[in-house]
TrEMBL record:
InterPro entries: DUF4937. Residues 13-97 form the DUF4937 domain. It comes from the Bacteria. It comes from Streptomyces hundungensis. It holds the Pfam family DUF4937. This is DUF4937 domain-containing protein.
Length: 212
C-alpha cells in the first residue's frame, strides 16, 4: 500500500540508531510494530536493516520534520512502540542530527527503491569543520551524485563536530564500484585525513519490512 506523505521541505531531523541484536526473530517482529509511526505529526519516513560486515548489528534511520515534532512523539507514543523489542538487543546507540544539505538533488526520506545504505559517521577537528563541509559539497557530493546507482543522500550535523553522511544505492553491486583507487584519490584531494578525528562507516542491507 502507498501511504500519502507531506511534501519534503528540507527541514529534517535525522535519527540514527545502531544496536547489537541478541534475539533476531524477536527484534524483527518488534521492528514491524514501528508501522505505528504512520500518522504521527511531523514523521517523514523510517527504514533500516542489517550491517553487511557484522550480521548481528542493526541500523535504523528515521526522519522527522523538526525537533519539536520528534520530542512530542518521544513524550507520548515512543515507549509503547519500543516495548515490543525489549530484551532483543544490547549496546544501543542513538544519535540525532540536523539536516544541513543534500548529497544529491531531490532528496526524499524514503527507502522503497534502495537496496543498501552507506552510512559514514565522522567526528571532525573543530578548526576543520567548515573545510570538511565545503569539501563534502565540492568534491564528495559530485562524485557520489555521478556514480551509477546512487539514488540520493543527506549530510547532517550534530553538536560536538559530528557529521552523518547517508547515501542510498540501488544495489550493493553498483555501490561497490564507488571505492578503492577512486576513494583514495578523492580523499587526498579533499584532505579528509586532516579534517577527520574519527570515522566509523558501515554498509546496511535494507530490509523492506522495516520501511515505514
Amino acid at each position: 500500500m502507498s501511504w500519502p506523505r507531506a511534501p519534503y521541505d528540507g527541514a529534517v531531523l535525522v535519527k540514527w540508531i545502531r544496536c547489537t541484536v541478541v534475539d533476531r526473530r524477536g527484534f524483527e517482529r518488534g521492528q514491524r510494530k514501528w508501522a505505528g509511526l504512520l500518522g504521527e505529526p511531523g514523521f517523514r519516513g523510517q527504514g533500516g536493516g542489517w550491517s553487511r560486515s557484522r550480521p548481528e548489528v542493526a541500523h535504523v534511520f528515521g526522519f522527522w520534520e523538526s525537533r519539536a515534532f520528534y520530542d512530542s512523539f518521544m513524550a507520548r507514543a515512543h515507549d509503547g512502540l519500543a516495548g515490543a523489542q525489549s530484551g532483543t538487543y544490547k549496546d544501543m546507540e542513538v544519535k540525532l542530527f540536523d539536516h544541513r544539505f543534500e548529497v544529491k538533488t531531490g532528496f526524499e526520506p524514503r527507502f522503497t527503491d534502495a537496496d543498501v545504505v552507506r552510512v559514514a559517521h565522522c567526528t571532525v577537528h573543530q578548526e576543520r569543520v567548515e573545510h570538511f563541509a565545503l569539501m563534502q559539497q565540492r568534491i564528495w557530493n559530485p562524485a557520489m551524485a555521478g556514480s551509477p546507482g546512487m539514488l540520493r543522500g543527506v549530510f547532517a550535523e550534530a553538536p560536538g563536530h559530528e557529521f552523518l553522511v547517508l547515501s542510498m544505492w540501488r544495489s550493493s553491486a553498483e555501490r561497490g564500484k564507488y571505492r578503492a583507487d577512486r576513494l583514495k584519490r578523492l580523499s587526498l584531494l579533499a584532505q579528509t585525513e586532516t579534517d577527520i578525528a574519527a570515522l566509523n562507516g558501515d554498509v546496511v542491507q535494507l530490509d523492506a519490512a522495516w520501511t515505514v
